[in-house]
């Protein structure tokens, strides 16, 4: 039974795809025929045969053409024939088709020879149709978003990303934990070399004896001589006799002449 259903489903899919392809071919052929009829209407318009132009353009429109230029040119023919209301109605129909299916570049080139105040009116209608199409598209998009939000499924682009989890504060070890004394803090000795160097002169300094202590307590010798001797009257710091009349600092007698060594010639 399941195989039969599967076979029927496969056959239906094949037939459906084949039908779609046939319909697309038929639609393309029809559009080709309608484009040819539209072309004859445009040629009649440029030839000044407005009646034939109107008839051919009407045939293309009634046949289901999606070319907005068929409506534009039929509106132009109506405008030239003195029917402005029908012209504006065709222009609005063509502008709606253009806003829905595009083709503005080809439309602009086709309408390049149509100028004047009527062309300005046509351009206003085209612009208004584009604005209305944009407004409708925005409303449909908003409605779709509201439906998804009401159903608990917000669009992926509008979903708020979850907030990142804040990292836990890392535990920082106190590098001075071992240096902190428990209880009352004590002041340490500032001399870092106390236990290393010590006093290098403690073995060379003799203890002062009783005689040294008594001598240190005695009076200083008379005079200014730090060696305890009295200076001679002559001012000789070496303790020699006074100088002679000649002023010889070496104590020798000077000769009658100028020879300081006392040798006569």
Automatic annotation (TrEMBL):
SUPFAM superfamilies: TPR-like. Residues 1-22 form the signal peptide. Residues 137-265 are annotated as: Disordered. Keywords: Signal. Residues 236-256 have a biased composition (Gly residues). InterPro entries: TPR-like_helical_dom_sf (IPR011990). Residues 150-170, 210-235 have a biased composition (Low complexity). It comes from the Bacteria. This is Tetratricopeptide repeat protein.
């Amino acid at each position: 039974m399941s195989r039969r259903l599967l076979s029927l489903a496969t056959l239906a899919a094949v037939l459906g795809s084949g039908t779609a392809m046939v319909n697309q071919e038929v639609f393309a052929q029809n559009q080709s025929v309608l484009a040819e009829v539209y072309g004859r209407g445009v040629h009649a318009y440029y030839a000044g045969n407005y009646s034939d132009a109107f008839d051919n353009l009407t045939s293309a429109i009634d046949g289901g053409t999606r070319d907005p230029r068929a409506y534009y040119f039929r509106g132009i023919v109506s405008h030239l024939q003195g029917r402005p209301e029908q012209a504006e109605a065709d222009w609005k129909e063509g502008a709606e088709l253009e806003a829905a299916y595009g083709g503005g570049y080809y439309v602009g080139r086709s309408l390049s020879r149509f100028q004047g105040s009527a062309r300005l009116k046509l351009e206003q209608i085209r612009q208004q149709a584009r604005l209305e199409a944009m407004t409708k598209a925005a409303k449909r998009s908003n409605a779709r978003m509201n439906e998804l939000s009401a159903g608990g499924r917000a669009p992926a682009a509008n979903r708020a990303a979850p907030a990142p989890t804040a990292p836990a504060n890392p535990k920082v070890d106190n590098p001075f934990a071992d240096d902190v004394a428990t209880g009352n803090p004590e002041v340490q000795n500032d001399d870092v070399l106390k236990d290393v160097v010590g006093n290098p002169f403690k073995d060379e300094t003799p203890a002062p004896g009783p005689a040294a202590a008594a001598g240190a307590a005695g009076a200083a010798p008379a005079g200014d001589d730090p060696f305890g001797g009295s200076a001679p009257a002559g001012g000789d710091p070496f303790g020699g006799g006074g100088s002679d009349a000649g002023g010889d600092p070496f104590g020798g007698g000077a000769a009658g002449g100028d020879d300081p060594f006392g040798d006569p010639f």
